[in-house]
Amino acid sequence: xxxxxxxxxxxxxxxxxxxxxxxxxxxxxxxxxxxxxxxxxxxxxxxxxxxxxxxxxxxxxxxxxxxxxxxxxxxxxxxxxxxxxxxxxxxxxxxxxxxxxxxxxxxxxxxxxxxxxxxxxxxxxxxxxxxxxxxxxxxxxxxxxxxxxxxxxxxxxxxxxxxxxxxxxxxxxxxxxxxxxxxxxxxxxxxxxxxxxxxxxxxxxxxxxxxxxxxxxxxxxxxxxxxxxxxxxxxxxxxxxxxxxxxxxxxxxxxxxxxxxxxxxxxxxxxxxxxxxxxxxxxxxxxxxxxxxxxxxxxxxxxxx
Length: 305
Description:
By secondary structure, the chain is an alpha+beta fold. It is built from 15 helices and four strands. The mean pLDDT is 88.
């Protein structure tokens, strides 16, 4: 798989990094070939594994329920107790319904406490969202800015077929306050739009892995692959390496411009060992040290482990 990926990079980019483009390429729409090139080589494989595991989990519960019904455990029914598989299936249904309702609740809560980005509110940012959406060939999603209480974060989410993105106000400060760093904000926006482009922020994508995605290690590994995909596509959209954005997430929005990048990269390269490996294994986002090196390479797929 990696060899095929490298050949694809070679055919499309030559020896260039994904964010190294001429003026004409910078304004071109993202082709299907480029989009798939930027996708992590293991993302689809892990998604299919999650679907398979999800089917096994659901099928196991259904089979158990049928078995108990056929067996007619009169003693359990007589005592008003549900057989274990039936109880598990009821629990699963409850978890699923609560999950859907939770999505609606959180979406409503976030939007009710945020400012929507429009042609009148932060028009420069709206133009960026519109431009990148057009390059990706997706509908322009609604976008919001909200107070993050010091947290540097952004996310994309969905309500059935509708997607939207939210960016914490603290991230906006890098573009509008002391650093005037619009590139880092652009990278954050491009990353979240990439989730929409790849279908990560849709019910259709998440429903087949609804339960399996919550399984430790397996779900987090699949998530890391998705994050790498979106980082790489964000590089292509923005034309920047995105390392400043990672520095911002690492040491806050006020200090990241004072970091010596080369010294930082040398230090990140030395972050190894069992506990670094384990911390990355259970994380749903790659550790910053691994994420930065994937961005530095500018091509290929980042290390999942």
